[in-house]
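Collaboration report, partner site 2.

Our partner group contributed sequences for two proteins of shared interest, and the home lab folded both. The records are reproduced in the order in which they were received, starting with the first partner submission.
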Amino acid sequence: MDITLFAGSIETWKGDALVACIPESKDQLPPLLQQIDSLSGGRLRNLQQAGELTGQSLDMVLLHHVPGLVANRLLLVGAGKPEKFGLPELRKVAAAALRHLKSKGVRTIAFLLPPDIPIADAAQAVTEGALLGDYEADKYKTDKNDQKKVAAFTVAGLDGDQQAEVEAAVGRGRVIAEAQNFTRDLVNEPSNALTPRILAQRALEMAQQFGLEAEILDEKRIAELGMGAFLAVARGSDEPPRFIILRYSPREPAASAPVFGLVGKGITFDSGGISIKPAEGMEKMKYDMAGGATMLGVMRAITQLNPPFRVMAFVPAAENLMSGRAQKPGDIQTSLSGKTIEVLNTDAEGRLVLADALTYAKRLGCTCLIDAATLTGAIVVALGNLNAGIFASDAVLLERFLASAQAAGEKMWSMPLDEEYAELMKSHIADLKNISGQRGGGAITAAMFLKAFAEETPWLHLDIAGTAWLDDPKPWSARGASGIGVRTLIHFLTHYPVGQAPPDGPTPASVPRGVKS
């Protein structure tokens, strides 16, 4: 989809549909809509007085052939209460408007930027929303309706002096949204079309396209390094594992900056192994590599946005299946760190592959670790499908990450890491066990298991099991993979203070626990 800019008078824009936001208010129309109302002879005000134009969040009124406008249609999208309207809401409005108009066969759209948000920020959010809203998980459909496809999206409501600023913002928005859609593409792939080897090949092709250094470790090299926990998970499948490593080095590196290690779970299909999952819903377990896909998407954007410090991504990719070679409950595995793990449940496999990946990231010099994984059903019990769970060993790291989540419009909530939970992960016959055996707190004990491998390195864990997949479409999004975490991580890495050493310090109870977007 082409994205263009329009700096002329809105009444002269020629295309299929003009989109404008309207706040929830019974008093008066905002100045931008007053102008349209005046051109139309009071048509908008009449609709408002009749109660048809409410401005309630995502409420849509589509008008045809409005007097005074060249555009064929005018779509008015409710922005909700003005005091609650910001960039996250604007992003959703742009996405929902595009999806609504696309369903009606509209091919050219112009979106009027609201005047009460800084223009560059608004242009970036609208661009992201349009590209994310345009995404469809229909790769394997043979009866696509090509008539319902938006050809051009125009950012309007600017003047000539703002052209360069808005162009740069639109460029950033495109990079970020395309990275998130790249992640969604990977997660939506069926597991027969995205085995560990194919995922590694896709990562390699992306790295070559965008100038990242890439290394793919095969099963022989993984074994030589001593990644016993990772290999134990992969052993049950005929498909061999792959360990994907991507490296970004800035053109002008900052002094005393951390080296970020992004670790993502890459289980391309998870049957649960010998501790097999129920049949109902198992088809969705192709999405168990969403954490790894998130990190690949982030790296795709980072190399284009060029933050001034090194970033590496680590994606241990495997299938968790059952066979005569599969690991069994009661087995003990030796991890890359040397710590031994008693496997009580083979369906708690994500933490095993992440354990070796975290250890390897430290060995390669990463001084700040962030991992993402569809790790536990327990996080869904705790937070539902609205918030991702965040666990952090460092107060500064947590605070900055939550601020980035808020800026990116992704809902996340901080979870506790009290040391008492670590006691639940101690084994009688090994250093650790891979599940606590307790009914409650499963997301926390899983995080404590990972923390044992991050050790003293500042570390943050993102459990996206409840948010990486949408069972039902939203007005602003297709069903399927959400790409959660991509925007937050990009914002975090591109806004990290230059010249600062890695964060260090315990997480106090006073740190804010979440963000609402």
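Second partner submission, folded after the first:
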Amino acid sequence: MYVDHPLLRRQAVEERAYQVTIAASCLERSTLVVLPTGMGKTVIAALVIAETLKRKGGKVLFLAPTKPLVEQHATYLKDVLLAGDVAVFTGEKPPEDRELEWRTCKVVCSTPQVIENDLRQKRIALDEVSLVVFDEAHRAVGEYAYVDVATAYRERGGLVLGITASPGSQAEKILEVCGNLGISGVEIRTEFDPDVSPYVHGIEVEKVFVEVPEQTARARDLLRSVLDEQVASLRNLGYLRDRPRPTTKDLLAVGRQVREALDSGRKSGPTFRAATVQALAMKVNHAIELVETQGTEALRNYVGRLGEGDSRANRTFLKHPKVAEALALAASEGAEHPKIRKAAWKVREQFIKKPDSRVIVFTHYRDMATVMERELTRLPGIKPVRFVGQATRGEDVGLTQKEQVDILGKFRTGEYNVVVATAVAEEGLDVPQVDLVVFYEPVPSEIRTIQRRGRTGRRYAGRVAVLVTKDTRDMAYLYSARRKEAKMHAELDRLRRELRQKIFVGTPGGETFVAASPKGRIEGLRKMEAKKDEPPKPRKPGQAELTDFSRA
């Protein structure tokens, strides 16, 4: 089924009950929509834009934080809307061209800074704007340009739509965003809500466990002994005495304490010594993570970069005899990490089953993205490409925004069939539906885990393979993300209840309340199924009417 609307191309927008319901709510009041990655926030925006233009005419302003996102949204709106030209405003477009297009186009997609500047220079006015859409709306705090644009628009009294996947878990933060944008309602959904779950396709998640190779384990043990030495030194200097087994977080806290002492003028010998020891401890700690969970090539590349620096901690690290011995073991034959072969085989296995597959391999580090691209290139039928951010780090040149968009276009057409990506592909950019997502390592963030996983299972069932090295921090990250994700779903239910006391909050499934427990969710689904056979209830006076959002 597709949405039928005079300002939407025929069969351009699939009809999903929760999207139509949320769009109807957004037409009644200015609303913040919170949906996970892949659940169609931009589709809801298109529905609201089409109906707003039909009812009120005027203009629609669609704001997004970056140029690639602006161009992505503009391309989508051009594909689905029948509302004339869609203008794209970025800093690269001359002001006189923007001024002309503002007068002639009904829909304008822009970065907020450009609109802020054009308003200040009085090149444009918001008098004719009927709707402003704020993508990544959680950014509307402090001095970010969203706040100034929303303040200027509030005088117009028009409709506001904020969309985000990451609103934060505190009601106060969400209310701050709502206040800054002039929003009076919130719609929050998760994939477990009864009006959403029918559209969520199954995702098979497989955990692939590997053992640390013998040479790698010996190298790791040597590095651990070096780390123990640095922790003992820090304790002698008065730090970490209440931490029997210090974590990375604890070491970072020591760094902050030392910097505060130096900034306050306490530049004693012990403080300088603590600064060097803490820096050395962090380097050793990072080396342990690389050798345990990434691979020896990543470790060698890291050590090579340290050799280019000239800090005391770098020199001490490289000259330490146990570090030298660990590096020699890492360089020995057969010491490469088994994850590399496992990841390559998972990708190869997918293409044996389905030759026209699309696959994403996520790696935390650029070095491993390079390694995996090289290894996958050797396999028949696999055309991989490395996908990283814009920053250039030494000889590692980043991708421009244009290059990123070009790669994703070639991924859609099949010129590339595997993208080996760092975190840059986890959110924002329009990555197509894929058949398999490979996590080279677990990530401790529940948001990043959901974003990675959400690249599959959008239009049809998908697979996820998570590579986990036994008895390493991989295990801790895996269970940490799982705990945080379970807590997040419970927090979103709590958040809806808290916000309901201060602001309008839409209820999933119309009148069906969804409890935080699985039992409550199952009961909610039963109620939704039962309500399908009920005759429609008469519309209340003043309730939003989407007369043209009908089935085609």
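Feedback sent to the partner group on the second submission included the following. The CA atoms of residues 232 and 291 lie 22 Å apart. The two ends are 6 Å apart (CA to CA).
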